[in-house]
Amino acid sequence: MALLLVAFASKAEEVACQAVLAGTRALIDATVHGLLDRELLRIVKLGVSGRLTVEATVVRRQKLWFGRVVAAATRELPLTWSEERGAFELDGLALPDPEHVSLPRIALSLGEADSPRAYEVEIVTRLVVVTPGSLGHVTGFLAGESDSPLARTLLGAIANDLIRSANGTCPVQPRR
Fold it and tell me: Which of 31, 100, 113, 130 has the most crowded CB, counting CB atoms within 10 A?
């Protein structure tokens, strides 16, 4: 009996970031790679808007102990298709390359000036295009109302399959 293994190449979803210390603030620039695949882009192009949640956290590293969170921020950025521009938009700005999404700069106040090497930035992104609720509304509209536990479970599973996330970390560098 022959065993055939087929490997599917999937693009890695990752966040690349750079952070610099400017006085008592960390200025963070991040780019998300591979988050928007062809299927999600097709759904957004059909008129279903998405929501990209970006969480940025600055951690002060401590020797032989867990780091301490000194600053954090969360942003919700809408992802839409603009018929006028013929382009995808993130937070109202055109995305030149949906494969590599540059996020708006994030500035976080650290409260104190310390060596930049004492800090590290963590970026977590989560893209939601279709929610179980929106799927439920569409299926309810198309097939009549169906609010059974099985339908809710199935819709939740489908929606979770359309969620993408990517994470990344970077050290804080001194400003040049």
Answer: 130
Of 176, 169, 174, 163, nearest to 135 by C-alpha is 163
Mean pLDDT of 78-105: 94
Strands (E), the chain: 14-22, 25-33, 50-62, 65-82, 87-90, 93-94, 100-102, 106-109, 119-128, 163-174
Mean pLDDT of the 87-97 span: 94
- Exposed, middle or buried by CB within 10 Å (0-12, 13-18, 19+), for 80? middle
Instruction: Give the N- to C-terminal CA distance of the chain in Å, as an integer.
Output: 63
E runs forming strands in 38-105: 50-62, 65-82, 87-90, 93-94, 100-102
Residues 43 and 130: beta-carbon distance below 8 Å: yes
- Which range (9-23, 52-66, 87-101, 146-160) has the least confidence? 146-160
Q: Average of pLDDT values for 98-120?
A: 89
Q: Give which of 98, 58, 51 is closest to 76, Cα–Cα.
A: 51
